[in-house]
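Regression check, zinc ion case 284:
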Amino acid sequence: MAISCVHLKAGAYMVCLTHALSTEREEIMGLCIGEVDVNRVVHIVSVIMLRRSDKRKDRVEISPEQLTHAASQAERLALQTGKPLRVLGWYHSHPHITVWPSHVDVRTQAMYQMMDEGFVGLIFSCFHDDKTNNLGHVTVTCFQSTNQSPEGEPPMYERLEIPFHIVRNESINEPCLNALIQLPRILHDEEEDAYNQAQLVKSNHLDVHNRAEMDQLNEGNMVCDNRILNDVHNSAVFTKSVCHQLEVLTGPLMQCLQSRLEKNKHILESLNKEKESILQQLSS
Ligand code: ZN
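Current build output:
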């Protein structure tokens, strides 16, 4: 039986959105933790950001290690909250394209539903400027897959749109906050990997390229020069991308969290004052 609707906590939504907006070059993805109630409503309370192992378009595969890690995190959360929480969904972004799930997405979703029929998929379409020129317009969809072919025939999956609502919560819960601060780390690690890979590729390439050259010229100095230039270039690109990340993501994120902290301190202060005055009224 399909899910009737999805309730996404505002804190979890904030994490997904921040994650989706962190890069327009490739799709990002993560897992959702939540529970299904008796009315077949999925409540998503937290999300886990994932590092993508395969960055090719439409390849949003989740490794068994990532699933196991997410499952144990859900278990821990279930113990803390006393709710039957489990990994109940996945989200990914569609930068520069429409929000609708691709054939691969629908098939992937069907596969997850085989493991857990309550599993839902969320897609965030961002950086997609349509003809009405809605700059900064983000669209979100929630879906499941249904098999449209008759019994005994090879499955033909189709998208089933699930209504979804963002539910207000008083504060961002701890797992959401933790997920949020994971983001700069994930992005940094990805840049570092790219840098290491570039170094490796370039040095291999240089070896072959220059060995022939060396035979011709019988001169070793040029190889050395090229290598230094390449090193300088690669580390400059790496530094630039890390600075860019600090500027557009880590900095604003810290500012945002800091202002939330300030706001919470103010609330705490006024609540304390209120408490004092009530206590005074009681004693008099
Ligand atoms: Zn997709």
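Comparison notes: The first helix runs from residue 10 to 20. The mean pLDDT is 86. No diff flagged against the previous build.
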